[in-house]
Specification:
α1 runs antiparallel to α2. The protein is of the alpha+beta class and 604 residues long. It is globular, with a radius of gyration of 24 Å. Helices cover 18% and strands 35% of the residues.
Length: 604
């Protein structure tokens, strides 16, 4: 066993390589803006080397760093009046903490809500008066609770349940609260309840009842007009995510039927007369405007690639965060130009992504391939497996895959069953054969990569973080003769221990995936746990883990590593002081260096 110290061979001297520049280059998120003070915005940037919240006064152009913590801060919300920044304060990435707030112009951080103990966050909605808030909390002891706070008074509990739930939205006039809940026990498919601030129920919407299909709902937002009781809702009634409008007062449901393939989401334009529609299909995305009066749909022009966030401004313009696999992310506006262009180092471009479709055991599998320009195979190939699992890789910029390409590797990213963007059945297919079904799809793409001449069969790397790290450890154990190296970041390694140690919301998700707890369905947990197959592992394994991680806790990783040690198996472990990943740029670079070095040593 080797405990890595972050100083791999060849890490010193010389000019900065492109892959490192991509991590160091300043990046910004899509700015949030205050509903009643739209010239006040909040965004996240890594400009100082750590991801922190920044306040931006668009009138003066001043940008001020609002938070400054050793391990970074990304969770923040502007009050609708623009007077306050609310931000979530946890301890070193453990996601367990309290909401603080500070004046937009700067000042002391103070507890945003007196009387609420630390918890995992479960949603937040702030009223337009700036003094009313709806706060969701989750703890192992209480499950989910939701509280209403008015004018600095004591918080009033309006909701409590053992299963996971969260605050969806607060209506424009503050009289209605939308809650997403999973009281039916299916954490993958929420139902909706609308209540008054005193907790009394106004309306219910539940697509999990009365049929054989498991269908979910999500809150997209109340209409931004006083007295308007329309709630924009995401539904899966046609086998994919689409928006509809639900009038919670009358019960009327308006199906928009936009006719776009793939998953569709939406948000209101500020005057409530139209919707900004976000459409995701086969790893790309685009934007549309939908008019309520005429039903007209107009495309909002964006470059080919991925729009990872968009918002409609009061003047009718749209700001959006865009990138492609080759071009780094940038915040643009339909009014012309770049909205935020941080000074300093610019991220070098990478290579475009190529689409590959492979027949798999559950249907056609979509994979995204990048390889060094002008190089023919067979190449050492990294199968970079995404996390989630309900997520998908897209034609968007990612510094990690670009680093592998710079070092001569091909990179293959697989949108396995469980991924979003390919319909509800594809997303839900992993249930009850957790982990194993995703690896079937990865195997189908791997066979194509080798037979096509892209990948060298003796130099295949399985890699990923979070759920991708879990699939990496499961893959090197269940397919020991296939993979030459395994690189697992913040993985699930011992699923039974992980279940008992993880945050409450993830316990609920695991009960849904497996059909019960480890005590109720032990065979299913055993079949899907990397620890079950650890003695079969032949490939050298590198594991990185955050010691404060509430999602893939450290004890279950230590259990797996102890078994590797007992066998004398080739492996290295790197533990760092953060949670489920790091917000510190230098730490991210360090981890990529370690992975690159580990692969180079064991593939030579």
């Amino acid at each position: 066993m080797t405990e890595s110290n972050g100083a791999p061979r060849g890490a010193g001297g010389g000019s900065m390589p492109d892959w490192e520049k991509r991590f160091r280059a300043p990046r910004v998120s899509l700015p949030d803006w205050a509903e009643d003070a739209p010239d006040r915005s909040l965004f996240v940037s890594n400009a100082t080397g750590t991801y922190e919240l920044y306040a931006w006064d668009r009138t003066t152009g001043e940008q001020r760093r609002a938070t400054d913590r050793p391990n970074g801060t990304t969770d923040g919300v502007l009050s609708p009046d623009g007077e306050w920044i609310w931000w979530f304060s946890d301890k070193d990435g453990d996601e367990f903490g309290v909401w603080l707030r500070q004046p937009f112009a700067g000042g002391e951080d103070v507890p945003a809500v007196d009387g609420l103990e630390a918890s995992y966050p479960a949603g937040l909605a702030i009223g337009r008066d700036g003094s009313t808030a709806v706060v969701g909390r989750s703890t192992d002891e209480d499950g989910t609770t939701i509280h209403v706070v008015r004018g600095g008074g004591a918080p009033q509990e309006i909701y409590r349940h053992r299963e996971s739930a969260g605050v969806g939205d607060l209506s424009h006039d503050g009289t209605l609260i939308a809650i997403e809940h999973t009281e039916h026990g299916d954490a993958m498919h929420s139902a909706l309840r609308v209540v008054r601030p005193d907790g009394t129920t106004v309306a219910e919407l539940d697509d999990t009842k009365g049929g054989s299909q498991e269908l979910g709902l999500e809150v997209l937002g109340f209409a931004p007009v006083d007295g308007d009781t329309r709630l924009l809702v995401g539904h899966q009634r046609r086998g994919r995510w689409e928006p509809m409008v639900w009038d919670v007062a009358s019960g009327e449901e308006t199906d928009l039927a936009l006719g776009l393939p793939g998953d569709v989401s939406a948000e209101w334009y500020p005057d409530g007369s139209a919707l900004l529609v976000a459409h995701s299909f086969e790893a790309r995305s685009d934007l549309w405007r939908y008019e309520f009066g005429s039903g007209a749909q107009t495309r909002v022009e964006t470059p080919p690639g991925t729009v990872s966030g968009a918002t409609a401004r009061p003047d009718g313009s749209v700001e959006y965060l865009w990138s492609s696999a080759a071009e780094p992310s940038v915040v643009r506006s339909t009014s012309g130009g770049v909205v935020l262009d941080p000074p300093g180092l610019k991220a070098p471009v990478s290579v475009p992504v190529e689409d590959v479709w492979v027949e798999g055991p559950g249907g056609r599998v979509h994979a995204l391939v990048q390889k060094p320009a002008g190089v023919t195979g067979p190449l050492p190939t990294v199968f970079e497996v995404h996390g989630g699992p309900t997520w998908h890789d897209s034609d968007s910029f990612a510094a990690g895959p670009a680093a592998w390409v710079d070092h001569g590797y091909a990179v293959v990213r697989v949108n396995y069953r469980g991924s979003t963007g390919y319909g509800r059945e594809w997303t839900d297919a992993l249930k009850h054969r957790v982990g194993l079904i995703e690896l079937e799809d990865v195997s189908a793409v791997r066979e194509w990569a080798v037979s096509s001449g892209l990948a060298d069969p003796d130099r295949l790397v399985l890699a990923g973080g979070s759920w991708g790290g879990y699939l990496t450890l499961l893959g090197v154990g269940t397919q020991p003769d296939v993979w030459a190296v395994g690189l697992a970041a913040v993985p699930v390694a011992d699923y039974v221990t992980a279940y008992h140690d993880e945050m409450e919301a993830l316990k609920a998700l695991d009960r849904t995936l497996f059909g019960g707890t480890p005590e109720e369905v032990p065979d299913r947990f055993t079949a899907s746990s990397p620890l079950t197959y650890v003695d079969e592992v032949k490939a050298p394994v590198y594991i990185s883990a955050g010691v404060n991680d509430p999602r893939c806790p450290i004890r279950q990783i230590d259990n797996y590593v102890d078994r590797l040690v007992a066998r004398g198996a080739t492996h290295e472990v790197y533990r760092y002081d953060a949670g489920h990943g790091s917000l510190v740029v230098e730490e991210r670079i360090k981890q990529v260096r370690l992975e690159l070095d580990f692969a180079a040593r064991h593939l030579s």
